[in-house]
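Postdoc handover notes: sequence design on the structure in folder B. Input tokens:
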């Protein structure tokens, strides 16, 4: 399913709300800006980021004196793209990996239920289709279902999964997965981890230990710490992102479940507030439903 199709399912996109708000209005005035503020907030952009965007638009309206409401759509798109560009300095075009980082180690973190396992499976599939070899590490050993799910994805995508079963030491799984990748000259290792955010100190220690054992083989590993967030949970995703950043550093975001929701605005707010690039977008449950984040494409889909 495409991002467009997904977002279109819900009729209330930013664009449709905006169109309604400017009916009978020719210029962008205080009232229109107030409406716009409301629209962005109800689209889950978040208050702080909304205010930032409104201020920028206000500046442009003040500078140009008169702005036709028909131009507001274009203006808003531009400002959102500019804002996204501050953290997403470049759009990823393909799955090329840095040549000096082999294996490229990705540690995936996120609360249970956000789509972490699914995202790992989809990522493995995308890497594999791009001609890369992949090993998965089932280091979310706290939940039996997580280990089973990852093994299932491994079978589906046809990539090996290193697993020691439930309740085993996550760091030992990570150690073996990275070791196997080094020994077999594999391109990418993706390590699943537990999402027990409610026991922060335990999780922090666990993730710390996973990192340390990886670094026995690869001093600069993990090369990517990917936080998976459920885009359909709106403000909750914000809170999770903030809480996770207390437990570990995060270098990239994957936002899932953006199909069937018009609330893609959460992506804009989280990227802006966390100062972390969005790398992947989940748009469905199937293997192919993961996309590389592209700023313009994304903003266009919000305005369809
Ligand atoms: P985990 O607990 O974080 O590992 O979550 P799972 O990967 O098991 O996913 C939880 C549920 O969300 C499953 O039913 C997935 O199929 C579903 N899911 C994951 N990503 C997406 C997505 O992008 N869109 C939709 N609609 N469902 C998703």
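Designed sequence:
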């Amino acid at each position: 399913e495409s991002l467009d199709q997904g977002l279109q399912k819900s009729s209330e996109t930013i664009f449709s709300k905006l169109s309604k708000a400017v009916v009978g209005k020719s210029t962008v005035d205080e009232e229109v800006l107030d409406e716009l503020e409301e629209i962005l907030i109800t689209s889950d952009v978040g208050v702080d980021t909304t205010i930032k965007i409104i201020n920028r638009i206000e500046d442009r309206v003040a500078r140009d004196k008169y702005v036709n409401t028909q131009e507001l759509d274009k203006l808003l798109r531009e400002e959102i793209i500019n804002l996204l560009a501050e953290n997403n300095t470049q759009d990823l075009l393909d799955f090329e990996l840095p040549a000096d980082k082999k294996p490229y180690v990705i540690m995936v973190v996120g609360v249970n239920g956000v789509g972490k396992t699914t995202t790992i499976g989809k990522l493995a599939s995308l890497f594999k289709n791009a001609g890369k070899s992949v090993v998965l590490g089932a280091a979310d050993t706290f939940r039996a279902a997580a280990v089973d799910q990852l093994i299932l994805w491994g079978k589906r995508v046809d990539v090996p999964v290193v697993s020691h079963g439930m309740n085993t030491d996550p760091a030992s799984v990570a150690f073996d997965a990275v070791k196997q990748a080094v020994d077999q000259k594999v391109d990418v290792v993706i390590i699943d981890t537990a999402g027990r955010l409610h026991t922060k100190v335990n999780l922090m220690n666990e993730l710390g230990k996973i990192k340390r054992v990886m670094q026995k083989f690869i001093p600069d590993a993990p090369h990517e710490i990917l936080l998976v967030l459920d885009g359909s949970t709106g403000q909750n995703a914000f809170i999770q992102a903030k809480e996770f950043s207390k437990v570990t550093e995060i270098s990239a975001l994957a936002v899932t479940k953006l199909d069937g929701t018009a609330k893609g605005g959460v992506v804009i707010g989280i990227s802006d507030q966390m100062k972390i690039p969005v790398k992947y977008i989940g748009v469905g449950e199937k293997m192919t439903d993961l996309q590389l984040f592209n700023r313009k494409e994304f903003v266009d889909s919000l305005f369809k």
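Context for whoever picks this up: The pocket of guanosine-5'-diphosphate is lined by residues 110, 112-118, 146, 149, 256-257, 259, 282-285, 289 (CB under 6 Å). Don't rerun without checking with the PI first.
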